[in-house]
Design a protein that fits this description.
Two copies of one chain form a homodimer.
Chain A (H helix, E strand, L loop, with lengths): L7 H20 L41 E7 L1 H18 L4 E7 L1 H14 L4 E7 L4 H4 L9 H5 L16 E3 L3 E3 L4 H4 L1 H8 L1 H10 L1 H15 L7 H11 L19 H9 L5 E3 L13 H12 L21 H10 L7 H8 L4 E2 L15 E8 L6 H7 L4 E7 L1 H13 L1 H4 L4 E7 L7 H10 L5 E4 L4 E3 L3 H11 L8 E5 L1 E3 L11 H9 L4 E2 L7 H4 L3 H6 L4 E3 L8 E5 L15 H11 L3 E4 L5 E3 L6 H7 L2 H22 L4 H13 L1
Parallel strand pairs in A: 1-2, 1-4, 2-3, 8-9, 8-11, 9-10, 13-18, 14-19
Antiparallel strand pairs in A: 5-6, 7-10, 11-17, 12-19, 13-17, 14-15, 16-18
Helix pairs in contact in A: 2-3, 9-10
Chain lengths: 656, 656
Amino acid sequence: MLPRGRPRAMGVAVLLLLLLLVIGFFLFGRDPEYGLGTTATLDGDLYGSRNLSASSPQLLLPPKCEVMLHVAVVCAGYNSSREIVTLMKSVLFYRKNPLHLHLITDAIARNILETLFRTWMVPAVVVSFYDAEELKPLVSWIPNKHYSGLYGLMKLVLPSILPLSLARVIVLDTDVTFSSDIVELWAFFGHFSGVILLWLDRLQQTGWEQVWKLTAKRELLTQTATSLADQDIFNAVIKEHPELVHPLPCVWNVQLSDHTLAERCYLEAADLKVIHWNSPKKLQVKNKHAEFFRSLHLTFLGYDGKLLRREPFGCPNHFPPGAEQLQQALAQLDEEEPCFEFRQQQLTVHRVHITFLSYQPPPPQPHDVTLVAQLSMDRLQMLEALCRHWPGPMSLALYLTDAEAQQFLHFVDMSPVLSVRKDVAYHVVYRDGPLYPVNQLRNVALAQALTPYVFLSDIDFLPAYSLYDYLRASIEQLELGGRRKAALVVPAFETLHYRFSFPKSKAELLTLLDAGSLHTFRYHEWPQGHASTDYSRWREAQAPYRVQWSAHYEPYVVVPRDCPRYDPRFVGFGWNKVAHIIELDAQEYEFLVLPEAFSIHLPHAPSLDISRFRSSPTYRDCLQALKEEFHQDLSRRYGSAALKYLTALQLSRSRA
Amino acid sequence: MLPRGRPRAMGVAVLLLLLLLVIGFFLFGRDPEYGLGTTATLDGDLYGSRNLSASSPQLLLPPKCEVMLHVAVVCAGYNSSREIVTLMKSVLFYRKNPLHLHLITDAIARNILETLFRTWMVPAVVVSFYDAEELKPLVSWIPNKHYSGLYGLMKLVLPSILPLSLARVIVLDTDVTFSSDIVELWAFFGHFSGVILLWLDRLQQTGWEQVWKLTAKRELLTQTATSLADQDIFNAVIKEHPELVHPLPCVWNVQLSDHTLAERCYLEAADLKVIHWNSPKKLQVKNKHAEFFRSLHLTFLGYDGKLLRREPFGCPNHFPPGAEQLQQALAQLDEEEPCFEFRQQQLTVHRVHITFLSYQPPPPQPHDVTLVAQLSMDRLQMLEALCRHWPGPMSLALYLTDAEAQQFLHFVDMSPVLSVRKDVAYHVVYRDGPLYPVNQLRNVALAQALTPYVFLSDIDFLPAYSLYDYLRASIEQLELGGRRKAALVVPAFETLHYRFSFPKSKAELLTLLDAGSLHTFRYHEWPQGHASTDYSRWREAQAPYRVQWSAHYEPYVVVPRDCPRYDPRFVGFGWNKVAHIIELDAQEYEFLVLPEAFSIHLPHAPSLDISRFRSSPTYRDCLQALKEEFHQDLSRRYGSAALKYLTALQLSRSRA
């Protein structure tokens, strides 16, 4: 028995083993498909160990491809939702069978994991969700130290929520990493059925529910315990019913430990199957196996999850939802066509991990505004300044590799400014393909904004310090709540100096403008982009004024969150915002310029994503082709009214 | 027999298998340590396959830890030197035994791989190098289409270069990826010894050398062949001596192929052991296994090699050279000390892959200069401009992750400017630790500069277009070749505008300076750094003039390549160049400012590495501590003469 209050890490492997049993007892049919290959006893040198002599005992492994393995995980909150990803990467890396995941989640984890698994599109993986709320009443009578402890206790009552048809299930905690095929663990069920079914009858007579509840109550009475964690109860049950426990070979529970037992396991085992250690930072340099554990954990932490979008080797296709259509669409692309890369990027389904870090959604307020933007690693240093300028909620999409997502996590942890801001939702979209999917990123951030209004900005812009308050006041004054279709324009400026003192007011901004320290945005290269905003009128304006759309207009706007999405066909750079503004105009949004609003673009070196494609000769041609298709689609949806956009574009081109 | 002229990919697995035999025949002792576990025949369902019933045949695997496995690879040139890294990562990921690598290399590969393995510091790996030149005469009589074909042919004569004491060796091509423990392949030796030793006698009588040479000569005569690749000869030998071939189970040679045979292997095999496919780009989307292959290959291509710096699990320590001292030094660091991270970073040995891309060393010229700089991923977009400004040789250290190194490769391939420049040597230093090891990077780049002089620059600076020619002329005029200790100062300027027209001459530069479009470098924040350069004198200067060192001086200089190295204790940012200039002054280098030389710093957002530590409160304290230690070391090395640096520093501090 493990002492109470031990770190959870110490107990979970016992838990894993016990649950394997527990669930087995309750849900096993008595039709063992896979029995022991020999009648030899199981002495820890099982299949998968190294030197198999003819006389050593072996478990039959179920054949690859056909047999579905069932895995259940209780997962609640933001941190566990990240942990489970690393667990699943390690399972998927080694697995050769189809998997059915049974995820018992709270609302937060469900929101995250539904999106993640939908976009991950791993073949031969089925995911079912179960509402952890339903299990709460069954365990909430047990005094528990932490709110999160309730989720641990839920493992006691899993059978009551999993489908009756489910015969066997492996229950895992989120903080383990596999270093072997999970089918080898599954094979233990065969062993149970052969050896421990004897006890099943007895258990069925008494009933597991009675067993653990009685034990828990007695513990509470006799041990004057004030709270019980799941592990405490398991320990107590094990103590009273040692016959329930079938020890797994030590390789299935390798922990960093100074115990002689663990040390002997390291030395004698040929192989390890599961490591149990989720905190590589708390590394004791003294333990000589620390490096090994750390390395395996970090392997999967930074592993590119899209590489796991593969059929189990040599198995017939198991397409996840949407994957077959996607594959057909991709197959129809012409690799020789010059815009192939653009079309391929547009069809790419990126894995999406919404609310990657802890997040407190904003309380519902009728005029609240979320700042929406997207960025990649090279703009991370903008975040602190942005947080200082925008005290309101933000929804940011980050385009990162799996390894970069870990760096990002560290970056936020280390930043005193970022780590305290719980109203910023970070959504990780995992990198895939050569072109920057700017509009797909914007749509992810937009979809996750929870306030009635959104400020559609870019990461290189810093809003006026007062902008958040001013926008909310403006929305209220303009009575936008009354379903009025309006796009509030925030005039955009830029500085070409990279050391720069940000203006505290419109008056200060105008002074800088007159001094030549500031310019209207892209005044030198592309004045058309913001010409309609009419900066000279804005100088004098005391009240919001309406402006008309004109060709190439791409202002930064505040709109209701149900506004049209960005067109994902525009990948890389160019026309991504222009098309969205046309869409707003086609849907008859009024453009209202706000007299006190402004936002300033800071200089930066061109990003790699931009410079890579600016120099490409086919880039302009492809962009042109995409524009034409966009206009055709507009005509289809808005009829002859949409002709004005095409005409305006052609006019502006003939003038140029 | 494979038809001649087939893609090499088709043949190499046969090669691998044959070589296993060939080398086995010649080098095997007849003392099989590991025999068949049963007397059953080997039918392709070997140990490591999935359903092991008690009656299926098994090979005994040698015990982990003790048995050293020998692997030989022929590796020549830049591309193979990259490929072998991915091969080795896959081998190391799964291995549990100590390995001895026998690398038969040309001078290029040896230079790269010696540095790589020395800095990789993988425990329980021994590397021996053999000069491929020695084997050339043995195979150069064979007509061959490509120069590189010679290296393929060398596999025919490997036994003549490997030590006689070597009993067994697995020969691998660089373009395979393992997905299993190489010990399982090693175990086949046991099988050979048991079953094929019979043929060893016969082979020994005739001799392999005679066999393949006769065959090759006959091929040349009868088939009117004009050239023979190694595979052609193996095929011919196999045809004449089919008894030499022992087929490996198909899982040891899984290739992307439309052959029915391969397809059946996919379906029947539970597992695959080695994939053979080094070109994920040339992916035929139609082949349903392509994703699987691609995924495994990319797994190791981007895998963080430092995670493989681990002892085989549960084995006693096998320290690579230097590792034990390093571990002791690390263990002596006090984790609670505020500067722990700095000291740890300073001790970190980064893996180094010198000349990561094809490179043509500059022809020896007595006054030639190499530009030396270092960068990380966020400065990659500087490279094209730098190449336009500096037409001479460069030695650049890049601080990258393994995955970023692949992106970098792609970036250079795609760039018309970079892909044609063969006089730029790129050295990849793999990321490890939170602080930017700026001086370690500079030292790597400096050590690889091959011209008599080096221009020690930074990546954000663009030199005057004429600088390369001007420097060479100046070196010649100043007769620096005569062992004169001189540091030629290149005055540094900066622009705060990120759109900027680069001055074509000193006259143009002075005009921009007077107009306020340019400034002397860090004029506003830190004039001390370049004060000694004496910009007002430079304006008028017609000839080089000597200046004296003063506190905080950090000019960009041209020095002989045997100049002092940078002090690696300065990691992160701050004092890294200052300390180097002090070192030059202490060694009595003359500082000579060149009247026509200049270099301009371009603006950029602060890098993540900088911003992460500027905000850290302990950062300044640690830097101060490092400075003090530096001064103590100076006194130790230069005696009382070094006191002037400390005094100057203290004086400047009391003034501030």
